[in-house]
Write a structure and sequence with these properties.
- With about 90 residues, the chain is mainly alpha-helical.
- The protein has a domain of about 45 residues.
- Helices cover about 55% and strands about 0% of the residues.
- The protein contains 5 helices and no strands.
- The longest helix has 12 residues.
Length: about 90
Amino acid sequence: MLATLIDAWEAVHYPMDPPDPIEAIKFRMEQQGLTRKNLEGIIGTRARITEVLSGKRELSIAMIMRLNEQLGIPADVLIKPAKKRAA
């Protein structure tokens, strides 16, 4: 019961924003020991993977669906606009 109260208090006083989509992809890659090559069937070519992971290209609906289905990343995290990266 105490843990539930603490969780509720933290949710009100210290809400957490969902993670950045690119950071979520990189985190899942690290968790599962995946390389960029493993993403070729999900995101596309090596060049496209580089563009996505560097923030130069937005995720398409098809990419979001495949990332959700194949890597289990929640779609609501992937739909959120990525933070702008420094050029």
